[in-house]
Amino acid sequence: MTKPAGGQLERSELLRESDASDEFVFLRAWMRAPLITAAMLPSGRALSRAVAAAVNPSTPGAIVELGPGTGAVTTALVERGIQPERLILIEFLPEFCELLRRRYPAARVISGDAFEAASILRHLGVGSLAAVVSGLPLYSKKPEHRERLLHDMLRLGPSGMPFVQATNFARSPIPFDPQDVAGEPSPRVWFNLLPALVWTYRWRQRKNRF
């Protein structure tokens, strides 16, 4: 039996250690603020990869992640070929911000309310976005607040820019008018703590949509 290459062994050990550390940090945050953290454990790899798959790495511009938590989806985005310096991570909980800054020092980590993301990004002058991905616990907010977040973020990118949302619910977590917005769910992701879906929203090609 051949001994695994050192690099492969180290990567495997690092992944196990990272997963264990993420689960501890996530569980601690959930116990302190369950309505903000929403789930007891971070997104699984299958769900994170499904979210990242909706983002085209060749589209120019920044990629915004709302509620990245411990960075499960962030890792999937980087593995998909997106450079960390293109990422803007908006996270409310300080312990998650600290972890993200250590793990992805080239990314911009912003401590703040993701529902104020559009205002934050305009203040930063980041320019047109390539994509928005979200793991926010949207059902803790009123429907009109969720829809306003979607519209505000879609306005920051070109026509066709995706807003990608992970959810454990079968129906769309964001109410939308199908005349204005196209919303499409992914196949169900079974290999997750709870089965999940990934919804992708885009503006439809219409005039006077604002």
Quick take:
The protein is of the alpha/beta class and 210 residues long. It has helices at 6-32, 34-37, 45-53, 72-79, 94-103, 117-124, 143-154, and strands at residues 62-66, 87-91, 108-111, 129-134, 163-167, 181-185, 197-203.
Characterize the structure shown.
With 210 residues, the chain is an alpha/beta fold. The chain has helices at residues 6-32, 34-37, 45-53, 72-79, 94-103, 117-124, 143-154, and strands spanning 62-66, 87-91, 108-111, 129-134, 163-167, 181-185, 197-203. α3 (45-53) packs across α4. The radius of gyration is 17 Å and the shape is globular. It has a 7-stranded mixed beta sheet with strand order 3-2-1-4-5-7-6, sandwiched between helices. The protein has one domain (43-203): Rossmann fold (3-Layer(aba) Sandwich). The chain is 37% helix and 18% strand. It contains 7 helices and 7 strands, in the order αααβαβαβαβαβββ.
Question: Secondary-structure blueprint of this entry?
Answer:
Elements: H1 6-32, H2 34-37, H3 45-53, E1 62-66, H4 72-79, E2 87-91, H5 94-103, E3 108-111, H6 117-124, E4 129-134, H7 143-154, E5 163-167, E6 181-185, E7 197-203
Parallel strand pairs: 1-2, 1-4, 2-3, 4-5
Antiparallel strand pairs: 5-7, 6-7
Taken from the alpha-carbon principal axes, the silhouette is globular
* Strand line-up of the largest beta sheet: 3-2-1-4-5-7-6
Total count of domains: 1
Radius of gyration: 17 Å
Query: What's the overall average pLDDT, rounded?
Result: 83
Helix content: 25-40%
**CATH architectural grouping:** 3-Layer(aba) Sandwich
What is the succession of H and E elements? HHHEHEHEHEHEEE
Q: What share of the residues does DSSP label as strand, in percent?
A: 15-25%
Pick out the low-confidence regions.
Answer: 1-17
CATH class: Alpha Beta
> Mind summarizing the main beta sheet?
7 strands, mixed
Count of discrete alpha- or pi-helical segments spanning 4 or more residues? 7
And the CATH topology? Rossmann fold
Q: N- to C-terminal separation?
A: 64 Å
| The CATH fourth-level homologous superfamily | Vaccinia Virus protein VP39
Task: Count every beta strand, where a strand is a DSSP E run of 2 or more residues.
Answer: 7
- Secondary-structure-based class equals alpha/beta
